């Protein structure tokens, strides 16, 4: 249900506590004390049929006995009583409940199922069960049994663990950090991580979101919410269970490599979230993000009174991918004048063990004036010569002075006072300077921010397109897979794999199948005639890897040796796997490429996120080497390059010695093709290419296995992918009033340059009518938000001139969190208005909205835009004056009741020979 009703949960006007007792360990009594201590100013009632009062406050026996209907009910009653309590709350019109109690069970027929269905029926939101509660310091709300009162701030915390939430509150209290909201969600019966990501992403009081995660329930919902939130503000996640054993029964090497934590890591990366690995790292991120610090880049200057400390910090910086800042000649000359002889004359700036406060300040000012760095780490080891506390005060004052004089602290300042006491920490707290107990902690925290900035940049990057160089024959590929499934098979045979790969333009060695040793020799003759040696491999749909049963023999050059080899591999397979059915042998020409790198590429199936793409170092020892990276499909070329770059084998692809480089685009393009296959054919359960050879001449799959099955579940759009892929089924043409046609398709991320050119052909007045104010320029970030769509929540159709390919107009919608109502917008090239293009695009959008199950299409139009208002009326929209702004009208189309017959499935004319 996403953000529906959450405003009243997190900012209630009235609260009822159900449960509690006079016992010291009573959860209900603890919640009551926390609400009073937080200063909650709304109406507060206690429901308890067994005690006349709880913690000095009188009770009523049931909810209907309260003189008001509470917005929020906090339930700490025994599990057996909760279904009745939730039903009573639902009937009364309560907006939401936080269920602190555990023990509701799981699955069909459990109390949890009864409670969930009851709440859904009444539109009531549930937090928990088995949770700590909810806290919003700004709203004077502490509806929890936490031991400390959180203070107000700008960081939101979402935690599946009450204990972790409590620990974060205690830590924040020590560091004087506050929270915009805290939600402990426990078993996530209703409100889940995705709902809260949506809520806090839109919360003006939240500047960053921290998450403690144990598991994701709905991958599509989670990814959609996470990607949307990360585009707006930093999202940091720590996930437990990293060392849990991966897929034990993986049918391929690819499946074995795609462990569950690797897939979660890929999901976080794809969403633009910053992953950390323990609570200490999460605390450090809160320290920085809670204060709004984000560096311009990854260049760090280090100022220290200990050379060894500076070297350690530099080593850690390099290890984590940061860059030691290079001091400008002007800065070096300035420091030569200000510092005693013998200073390091480079970064790290070692100002010697006898450095006092004045020396620290002059050096820090010089570094902050140097544009060659993005942050300055000020480190100190206390000596008997200069007290650390005094130096800390001088550094803090230096930073304050620069802020006060608006001379702009050019770089982020971090402090690492090794062995400092609480007084030193308080000095930095008062000056809002992030501080850490060691140089290692400080450098790691800096690099977290760098990673966040990189993730933000990657989210907005414009990927190169592949449509012009890659168009799969999806129909042919699907025929291969469906035919094999209709025969009850779980694996494609070698000939079918070749056909599948050819449909997706993935080079694979020619393979023929023989059902006998003599037949193998006959089928090998053409390869022998071409001068190739032969590879004979046992063929059984029951044997996952032929090499494991001695079922592969190489370098065969005569007919007799081929016959003997075929007999040998069949006999070995019978001996090793007497239970397996042998279909025969496969014959392949032996490919010898002197400097080819052996790679593994594949598709694995994750129980939470569905298909994942795996890439790494291939060969027989692939799982021992374990050089691999994982990504969620679909992929564009940028994502594919990034996937390759996360492996050690990527360094070999660039060439070395006398070995030429593999063309840079070949391997990433092959990964894009595999990702497209995963999107197009959900019946491909697992796919394994090992090895794939890559050299300067190209890539070639030598061995591949493909497991198939009917998918157990499909997301909207008939795909298993957690990230909804480009909806190619909506490509086609639109017929205009004059009989002409325009090409129409969903917008793609690589359309950014085309959209920028389109805006140049729209008049300033039309832009004002579309965006409600004058638009003088369109930044990369602005256009990226328009073109990089999450197709699970939004859609935009672009109309293109069939002759020139130029953009003629676009129409878009963006759904609400419930996926019931969507807002639309439309913009046409100014000199094309009046030709019926706007009408056709709106019809297409309405048809799309209906097909997605949306209930309403709405928008806002300036009252002076009479043309748009008239078209909306003709399409069946109701038009009403906006109650708050009379320069705007609100237009709404009820998609269930609309009787516009013209909006039908035939509005989109699909090409007769569509390849996808």
Automatic annotation (TrEMBL):
Annotated InterPro entries: Acyl-CoA_Synth/Transferase, Acyl_CoA_acyltransferase, ATP_grasp_subdomain_1, CoA-bd, GNAT_dom, Ligase_CoA_dom, NAD(P)-bd_dom_sf, Succ_CoA_lig_flav_dom
Organism domain of life: Bacteria
Pfam families: Acetyltransf_3 (PF13302), ATP-grasp_5 (PF13549), CoA_binding_2 (PF13380), Ligase_CoA_2 (PF19045), Succ_CoA_lig (PF13607)
PROSITE patterns in the record: GNAT
Ranges for domain N-acetyltransferase: 742-898
SUPFAM superfamilies listed in its UniProt record: Acyl-CoA N-acyltransferases (Nat), Glutathione synthetase ATP-binding domain-like, NAD(P)-binding Rossmann-fold domains, Succinyl-CoA synthetase domains
Entries under SMART domains matching the protein: CoA_binding (SM00881)
Keywords: ATP-binding, Ligase, Nucleotide-binding, Tricarboxylic acid cycle
Keyword ATP-binding attributed: yes
GO terms for MF: ligase activity
PANTHER family assigned: 3-HYDROXYPROPIONATE--COA LIGASE [ADP-FORMING], ACETATE--COA LIGASE [ADP-FORMING]
Protein name: Bifunctional acetate--CoA ligase family protein/GNAT family N-acetyltransferase
Organism in which the protein naturally occurs: Bradyrhizobium quebecense
């Amino acid at each position: 249900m996403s953000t529906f009703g959450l405003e009243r949960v997190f900012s209630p006007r009235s609260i009822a506590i159900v449960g509690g007792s006079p016992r010291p360990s009573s959860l209900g009594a603890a919640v009551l004390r926390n609400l009073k201590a937080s200063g909650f100013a709304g109406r507060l009632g206690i429901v308890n049929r067994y005690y006349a009062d709880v913690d000095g406050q009188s009770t009523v026996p049931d909810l209907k006995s309260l003189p008001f209907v509470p917005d929020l009910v906090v339930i700490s009653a025994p599990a057996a009583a909760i279904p009745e309590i939730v039903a009573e709350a639902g009937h009364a019109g309560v907006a939401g409940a936080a269920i602190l109690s555990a023990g509701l069970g799981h699955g069909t027929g459990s109390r949890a199922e009864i409670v969930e269905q009851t709440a859904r029926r009444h539109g009531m939101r549930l937090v928990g069960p088995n949770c700590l509660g909810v806290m919003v310091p700004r709203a004077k709300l502490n509806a929890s049994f936490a031991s400390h009162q959180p203070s107000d701030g700008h960081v939101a915390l979402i935690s599946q663990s009450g204990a972790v939430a409590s620990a974060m509150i205690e830590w924040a209290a020590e560091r004087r950090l506050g929270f915009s909201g805290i939600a402990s969600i426990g078993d996530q019966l209703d409100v889940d991580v995705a709902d809260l990501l949506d809520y806090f992403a839109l919360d003006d009081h939240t500047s960053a979101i921290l998450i403690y995660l144990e598991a994701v329930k709905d991958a599509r919902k989670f990814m959609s919410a996470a990607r949307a939130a990360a585009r707006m503000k930093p999202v940091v996640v720590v996930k437990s269970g990293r060392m849990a054993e991966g897929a034990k029964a993986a049918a391929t090497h690819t499946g074995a490599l795609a462990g569950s934590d690797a897939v979660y890591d890929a999901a976080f990366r794809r969403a633009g979230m910053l992953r950390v690995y323990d609570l200490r790292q999460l605390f450090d991120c809160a320290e920085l993000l809670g204060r709004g610090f984000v560096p311009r880049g990854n260049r760090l200057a280090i100022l220290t009174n200990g050379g060894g400390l500076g070297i350690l910090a530099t080593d850690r910086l390099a290890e984590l991918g940061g860059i030691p800042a290079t001091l400008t000649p002007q800065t070096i000359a300035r420091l030569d004048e200000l510092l005693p002889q013998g200073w390091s004359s480079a970064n790290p700036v070692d100002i010697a063990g006898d450095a006092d406060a004045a020396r620290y300040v002059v050096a820090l000012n010089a570094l902050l004036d140097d544009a060659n760095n993005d942050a300055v780490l000020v480190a100190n080891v206390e000596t008997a010569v200069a007290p650390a506390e005094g130096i800390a005060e001088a550094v803090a004052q230096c930073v304050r002075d620069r802020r006060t004089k608006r001379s702009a602290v050019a770089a982020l300042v971090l402090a690492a006072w090794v062995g400092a006491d609480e007084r030193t920490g308080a000095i930095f707290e008062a000056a809002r300077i992030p501080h850490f107990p060691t140089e290692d902690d400080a450098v790691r925290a800096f690099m977290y921010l760098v990673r966040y900035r990189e993730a933000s940049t990657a989210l907005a990057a414009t990927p190169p397109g592949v449509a012009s160089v890659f168009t799969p024959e999806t129909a042919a590929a699907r025929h291969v897979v469906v035919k094999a499934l209709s025969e009850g098979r779980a694996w494609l045979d070698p000939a079918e794999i070749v056909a599948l790969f050819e449909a997706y333009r993935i080079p694979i060695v020619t393979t023929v199948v023989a059902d006998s040793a003599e037949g193998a020799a006959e089928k090998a003759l053409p390869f022998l005639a071409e001068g190739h040696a032969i590879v004979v491999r046992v063929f059984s749909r029951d044997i996952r890897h032929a090499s494991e049963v001695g079922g592969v023999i190489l370098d065969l050059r005569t007919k007799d040796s081929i016959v003997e080899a075929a007999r040998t591999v069949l006999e070995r397979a019978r001996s090793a796997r007497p239970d397996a059915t042998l279909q025969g042998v496969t014959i392949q020409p032996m490919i010898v490429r002197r400097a080819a790198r052996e790679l593994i590429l594949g598709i694995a199936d994750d129980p939470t996120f569905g298909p994942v793409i795996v890439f790494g170092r291939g060969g027989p020892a692939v799982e021992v080497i374990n050089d691999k990276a994982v990504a969620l499909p679909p992929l564009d070329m940028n994502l594919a390059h990034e996937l390759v770059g996360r492996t050690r084998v990527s360094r070999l692809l660039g060439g070395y010695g006398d070995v030429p480089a593999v063309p840079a685009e070949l391997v990433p393009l092959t990964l894009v093709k595999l990702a497209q296959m995963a999107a197009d054919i959900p019946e491909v359960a697992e796919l394994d290419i090992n090895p794939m050879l890559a050299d300067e001449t190209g890539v070639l799959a030598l061995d591949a296995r493909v497991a198939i099955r009917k998918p157990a579940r499909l997301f909207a759009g008939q795909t298993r992918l957690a990230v909804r892929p480009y909806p190619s089924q909506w490509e086609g043409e639109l017929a205009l009033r004059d009989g002409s046609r325009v090409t129409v398709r969903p917008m793609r991320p690589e359309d950014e340059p085309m959209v920028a050119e389109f805006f140049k052909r729209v008049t300033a007045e039309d832009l004002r009518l579309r965006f409600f104010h004058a638009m003088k320029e369109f930044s990369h970030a602005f256009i990226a938000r328009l073109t990089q769509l999450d197709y699970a929540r939004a859609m935009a159709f672009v109309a293109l001139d069939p002759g020139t390919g130029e953009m003629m107009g676009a129409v878009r919608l963006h759904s609400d969190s419930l996926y019931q109502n969507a807002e639309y917008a439309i913009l046409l090239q100014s000199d094309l208005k009046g030709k019926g293009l706007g009408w056709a695009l709106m019809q297409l959008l309405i048809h799309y909205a209906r097909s997605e199950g949306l209930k309403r299409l709405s928008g806002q139009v300036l009252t002076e835009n009479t043309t748009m208002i008239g078209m909306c009326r003709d399409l069946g929209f109701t038009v009403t004056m906006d109650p708050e702004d009379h320069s705007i009208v609100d237009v709404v189309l009820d998609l269930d009741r609309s009787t516009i017959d013209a909006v039908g499935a035939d509005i989109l004319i699909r090409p007769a020979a569509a390849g996808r």
